[in-house]
Fold:
Amino acid sequence: MSSSQKAIQAGILLIFLGFVLVFLGTILSAGDSGGNFGGVLLIGPIPIAFGSSPEITSTMLWAGVIIALIYLFTRRMF
Structure:
């Protein structure tokens, strides 16, 4: 199996995993009426975090940094 085929399979797996995580997050937060929210916008490997409180924003920022690092390390593998 060539490296391009491995990269395509890894990409498809990551897309599927993303859909599953969004679906699970929606289900798990359906009962939460706290009104807290947060997210990460990745522009290339640069994370931009936002949230309704400083705690959520810092958590989202760390999640974005971890995602960016995973991206940078896996990009060098393929």
